[in-house]
Design a protein that fits this description.
single chain, mainly alpha, Tetracycline Repressor, domain 2, Four Helix Bundle (Hemerythrin (Met), subunit A), 2 domains, 74% helix
């Protein structure tokens, strides 16, 4: 037998399987979104009348973080076709070919189960049920249904991103309070103007991907009006923690100033309809909206940590 018979025909070899780096799995977790979830959940947890044990608090927040990461992985699994069509998302691990969709699905399901089970064991089953509902709402109600079917997707779907303070409070107390519902309301009303400001900048990409965001369905004028309306509603809701007595006058002052700045930014977006100036106004509002939410919750977190000063002593 000749040596030629042992030559392997590369054209008949098995299909090449992508090899993912650890960073690709980390990217599936949407770490920036996950950090915001943990931060807002911490604020809810610290609203508890008595301080939870630091170890249990850390374990609860870690479970919530893993649950948020699971939601991100399952979102990327389902939205891989859309992600491949948008410049903002086309380099994510699945559309870039570094991960298979099946791998992301398995990864997300395992993380979701671990997060819910762990939170139930270390905290309580009400918090675990709320975390499970949050994951379900984000993946099934928002990602699979609302996102591709209605321009109000981000309005209704925003409830998923607003639930972490309620989950955090439930983890610490085993109950839901008016204070945690107020934090939910702040994030819920904040979400549409935040995302619609981005959608104004990316409307063509959303249209190409077949996602019915408000600007490419109802037009820029309607979107700008909605941004202003939601921002006007957000400003007084942001003051409620002080008005209801679970935040200090410092928070009250910060919330008034930030709310006024948010309305001013939204008015600029509403007034400037076309051209580079309009795009800059939308970008400024998008960036400032992140600052707005971060500073509000940072003040709350710092105040509650000082209230629970034995944690540091």
């Amino acid at each position: 037998m000749s040596d030629a018979s042992f030559i392997i025909d590369e054209s008949c070899s098995a299909p090449r399987v992508p090899v993912a780096a650890p960073g690709d799995y980390f990217a599936l977790l949407k770490p920036r979104v996950m950090s915001l979830v943990v931060f807002t959940a911490l604020a809810g947890l610290l609203l508890a009348p008595t301080p939870p044990h630091p170890v249990l608090a850390f374990a609860s927040l870690l479970s919530i973080a893993v649950g948020a990461g699971a939601s991100g992985a399952l979102n990327m699994w389902y939205d891989a076709d859309i992600d491949a069509l948008m410049t903002r998302t086309r380099l994510r691990p699945i559309p870039a070919g570094r991960l298979l969709r099946e791998e992301a699905l398995a990864f997300g399901l395992v993380l979701a189960a671990m997060a819910v089970l762990t939170l139930g064991l270390v905290a309580n089953w009400l918090a675990a049920a709320l975390l499970a509902f949050t994951i379900f709402f984000y993946v099934v109600i928002y990602t699979m249904w609302l996102k591709r079917s209605t321009p109000m997707n981000i309005v209704i779907g925003g409830a998923a991103g607003a639930l972490p303070p309620i989950v955090g409070f439930a983890a610490a107390t085993g109950s839901v309070s008016l204070a945690s519902l107020v934090l939910f309301s702040i994030i819920f009303i904040w979400t549409p103007p935040h995302f619609w400001a981005l959608a104004l900048l990316k409307s063509e990409e959303y249209g190409r991907a077949g996602v019915p965001m408000l600007p490419n369905v109802a037009g820029g004028v309607r979107t700008r009006a909605e941004i202003l309306i939601y921002s006007l509603a957000l400003a007084p809701i942001g003051v409620l923690p002080y008005a209801l007595g679970f935040a200090s006058p410092v928070y009250g002052l910060v919330s008034v100033v930030l709310g006024f700045a948010m309305v001013c930014g939204a008015f600029a977006v509403f007034r400037l309809r076309d051209g580079d100036a309009a795009r800059r106004a939308a970008l400024r509002l998008f960036i400032f909206s992140i600052v707005y939410l971060f500073l509000l919750f940072m003040v709350l977190v710092v105040e509650r940590l000082l209230h629970f000063s034995p944690w540091f002593g």
